[in-house]
UniProtKB/TrEMBL annotation:
InterPro entries: Extradiol_RC_dioxygenase (IPR052537), Glyas_Bleomycin-R_OHBP_Dase (IPR029068), Glyas_Fos-R_dOase_dom (IPR004360), VOC_core (IPR037523). Pfam families: Glyoxalase. Coiled coil: none annotated. SUPFAM superfamilies: Glyoxalase/Bleomycin resistance protein/Dihydroxybiphenyl dioxygenase (SSF54593). This is VOC family protein. Residues 7-132, 152-271 form the VOC domain. It comes from the Bacteria.
Amino acid sequence: MLTQINGLHHVTSLASSARGNNAFFTGTLGLRRVKKTVNFDAPDVYHLYYGDETGTPGTVMTYFPFPDAGRGRPGAGEVGTTAFSVPKGSLDWWEQRLAGHKVEGMQKGTRFGDAVLAFEGPDGDGFALIETGDDPRTPWTEGVPEDVAIRGFHSADMRLTPRGAAASAELLRFMGYEEEGKDGGITRFRVPDGNGAEVIDITTVEARHAAQGAGSVHHIAFSVDNRAAQLEVRKALMETGFQVTPVIDRDYFWAIYFRTPGGVLFEVATNEPGFDRDEDSAHLGEALKLPTQHEHLRAALERYLEPIE
């Protein structure tokens, strides 16, 4: 069993508009944009990162906004809901705020005894706010009061067929997660002594396979402290039979990827070097930062990419 994983590092999804995506996360949800860069494999598409003040692992939602992309089709084999942690007693405030921003799909409920407010992002993305009483993480508060602000991720909920759910549960146990309980058709796993974003839920569904598009989660990334820990994880996964990519330099972290038995793409990302490696922390996310191999395209990209605040 692995012991190197701390919880989630980031969640990466697809969108149809950079401007709308940026407005939703920085305006509606009050997160900080901590990096404005481009997709390594498609430099004419932004890669936008939102999180706390410094983009602490476990707080960072990232997006590839493909202009005018069609919406994804929900189904099995994907992360259906990305949940954020908010303080106890804050959901009434959030319900009013989201209603004022004309957010759709709002529904209150409970999950594992905690109050939950589910809602949709601009492309039908599945989100939830979950009240957590003991989350010590410091939020970004320029747009939202501290006593209600998002602390970071609470969990990611994978929608899987029964066969995929069973195999993915075994994978999570191998990755150091412990089964914490069941609530209806949801099974909860938690990595002990994690980074605050240490919960993964599995919802068992009978549904056709999802089709990715705007609003779909592309992958979820798990946090490890450094490259040495990442190499240990990679070796153990490969010895278990998973096909794992070589280590890839993503400028702000190193990454490896593999596909889970249930169909969800997992990444294991390092906490080093961080988002301040090429920008002062006071100005994160302001300038367009390009990977070295795409720097020669800067003039063309600055003309082509949709301007965002």
